[in-house]
Amino acid sequence: MANVNDKYAIRMMKADDYEQAFVLWNGLEGLGLSEADSPERIARFLQRNEGLSFVCEYEGSLIGTIMAGHDSRRGFLYHLGVATAHRGQGIAPLLVNEALSALLREGIDKCHLFVMEHNEAGQRFWSANGWEKRDGILLYSRGLESRGLE
Ligand SMILES: CC(C)(COP(=O)(O)OP(=O)(O)OC[C@H]1O[C@@H](n2cnc3c(N)ncnc32)[C@H](O)[C@@H]1OP(=O)(O)O)[C@@H](O)C(=O)NCCC(=O)NCCS
Predict the structure, then answer these.
(1) What are phi and psi of 75, to 5 degrees?
(2) Domain assignment present for 113
(3) Is 2 a domain residue?
(4) Residue 102 and residue 68: Cα distance in Å, rounded?
């Protein structure tokens, strides 16, 4: 468990953290939520990607999250967020480091993430922390059930 100071603690995320995490995510501008963020789907993500997602607690309350997973080729980060009152203290980089270290231990040496185009502060955060904005790649998505692929 990493400490920012005595009152902050970073630890692995578990399914039981969902309720507090969802309250945090709902209050964050720039973080997109979908049906993939139901309690069941998040629990499944955590089980499938055990030990790769982290939370930051302040005096026992959840104030930061990061979720990481991989497909055995590349890692992916999701839901990096820090409660407004606790920003500007380097908590997000600590969460990112924990997730990247965990991915590296799994043999994953490259990681991607998605940022909403309108989330300019989010884009600035990633650029300021050593992440490269990719040109020349477009994201294509498809809902499977709606295309008859049930
Ligand atoms: C982005 C976010 C996670 C940053 O959390 P944080 O713990 O406050 O991060 P910090 O401010 O301590 O940032 C650490 C470093 O990143 C830099 N940084 C953070 N936000 C920045 C911004 N908007 N522009 C430029 N640099 C930024 C800081 O200057 C700092 O660098 P330094 O240590 O050299 O001074 C937080 O603002 C947040 O939860 N935003 C809403 C959700 C979101 O957009 N998440 C990303 C989704 S892709």
Answers:
(1) -95, 155
(2) yes
(3) no
(4) 9
For residue 56, what pLDDT is reported?
Answer: 98
pLDDT (tens digit per residue) in 37-52? 999 999 999 999 999 9
CATH, residue 130:
3.40.630.30
Q: Does 92 sit in the ligand 1 pocket, CB within 6 Å?
A: yes
Q: Which two tokens mark 142?
A: 């498809």
pLDDT tens-digit series, residues 78-92: 999 999 999 999 999
Atom of ligand 1 lying closest to residue 116 CA: 48
How far, in Å, from the CA of 34 to the mean position of ligand 1? Answer: 23
Strands in 28-138 per DSSP E: 54-58, 61-70, 75-82, 111-113
**pLDDT the model gives residue 72:** 97
Token pair listed for 102: 């965990």
Give yes or no for residue 95 CB within 6 A of ligand 1: no
What averages of pLDDT result for each successive group of 10 residues across the chain (150 residues)?
77 98 94 94 98 96 98 98 96 98 98 96 97 96 76
Taking the centre of ligand 1 as the mean of its atom positions, its distance from the CA of residue 122, in whole angstroms, is: 7
* Residue keyed to tokens 């993430």: 113
- Tokens representing residue 46 in the block: 């955590």
Tell me the two tokens of residue 58: 């302040």
Domain that residue 48 falls in: 8-147
